[in-house]
Structure formats: C-alpha cells, structure tokens
Amino acid sequence: MSSQMPLDWPNCPAWSPFFGFAGICIGVVFSCAGSAFGTAKCGIGLASASLINKSVIVRGLIAPIMAGIIGIYGLVFSIVVLDSIKNDGYHVAKAYAHFGGGLSVGITGLAAGITIGIAGQLGIISFAKQPQLFVGMTLVLIFGEVLGIYGMVISLVLNTKNYECIPSA
C-alpha cells in the first residue's frame, strides 16, 4: 500500500533523512551497548565460575554468545532502513517510522543485554555450583533474548508502510 504525496515542503522536507539516520544510529548504538554490557557481565560470571568448577566453561559460553547476538538485531535494522533512504525525496512519515523503529530495536536491545548480562552472570555462577541449573539458566537467557527479537520485529513492521515522494506538477 503506497501513499503518494507531492515532493514539497510539508511531506518531503530536506531535513527528513536526519530522522532516518538518527533511527539507524540509535538502533545500532543501543543494541550494541546492550550486547557489550551483556557480554561483559557474562564474561565476569564465566571467569568467576571457572574458579569454582572448570567443567562449566564450555557450556557457560552460551550466555556471552547470546548477549553478542543482540548487536546483530541493530545491524539488520540498519541495513534494511539504509536501503529505504533515497536521494530523490524521503517522506517525513517514513523518516519518523524509521526513527521509531530505531528506538524500538535499540531500547529493547539494551534491555535484553542488561537482562542477559545480569541473569547470565548469576546463572553461570549458580550453574558452577549446581550443574542441574543449566536448563533453567538457559530458559531465562532465552526469555531475555526474546526482548530484542520483539524490538526487531516491531522495527521491521514499522518499515513496511511505504510513503513515496512524487514531484509536484
């Protein structure tokens, strides 16, 4: 479904790409910040757990790996949106949708990274003390990861509406 609007000031201003690029920046920066935080916290937990029980190192790597995946959500969003920004007119509604999508994937990526980092750190240490907690720890990490997936899905849904700028006659 396409809404065609004339290429003039109210619909396709020269400043509208700013919001698209700002959405890309916010999405990538916050999702990568969440990924970095989660990876760091899980790494601390893995180092602490290896002092308790060395056999948990390989299975405990699932938490930092899951935290590292969160940054990919922002990257996927940025590639999709970057392809939508055109030189010959960029509708302001599309720019706002891309900005909102960047907020969505960025903030949920940050929240997922914090969740995985804290749950992963404590989960790995608990898993080192009691190995039967591995399945429970993994489920909590999956539920934390899903937060980032929800944000990416919302950002991609916001990108589906197509507004086009056409030259005014």
UniProtKB/TrEMBL annotation:
Record's bilayer topology term: Multi-pass membrane protein
Keywords in alphabetical order: Hydrogen ion transport, Ion transport, Membrane, Transmembrane, Transmembrane helix, Transport, Vacuole
Alphabetized Pfam families for the sequence: ATP-synt_C
GO cellular component, one term: vacuolar membrane
Transmembrane segments: 20-40, 61-82, 102-127, 134-158
Secretion signal, residue range per the UniProt entry: none
Main location: membrane
InterPro entries (alphabetical): ATPase_proteolipid_c-like_dom, ATPase_proteolipid_csu, ATPase_proteolipid_su_C_euk, F/V-ATP_Csub_sf
Name used for this protein in its record: V-type proton ATPase proteolipid subunit
Lineage: Eukaryota, Metamonada, Parabasalia, Tritrichomonadida, Tritrichomonadidae
